[in-house]
Design a protein that fits this description.
28% helix, Nuclear Transport Factor 2, Chain: A, alpha+beta
Amino acid sequence: MSQEPDDPAEPTRGGAPDVPPPGAGRDRPDRVLFGIVAAIAVLVVVALGVVFLRGEPQLLDESTPAGVVQRYSKAVIDSDTAAADAYLTDNARSRCANYYGGAQASRVVLISTTERGGTATVKVSIVHSAEAGPFGPSEYAEEGVLGLVKAGGKWMINELPYSLQTCAGGMLKK
């Protein structure tokens, strides 16, 4: 007589179905879960590395209009009015008489540069950040145009937007 193979759904000796012992078959899901957690940890470490190690933006050549505006903007954002003042013409400095506050930019992004002989215009996006608001921190951007002139072989800022204005030793009106 031939005997048929055991059906796993049928009860075996004593009428109880075969039940795997506790922990049997769990090795595979534990390894998969460990792999997912390890992958997430690696992504977090890489993201933190990118954020903390990206460094400062590359400085443009100071002999170009964009390089002058970059250095001026950095000085304004860093509240270094003496350094910022070094990039301004007397005409731009004379505007301190009508100046009513501190620089308002938190970030400046280059859009375009146009040179025409001894003059140049640099268009930038000026980003303003506000820490408080009904929905938390916010920011907005405006476009600004800086006019530069070549004086003594160097580019100097002659006209600038109010939100990038800063004054070193000028008469501030409050």
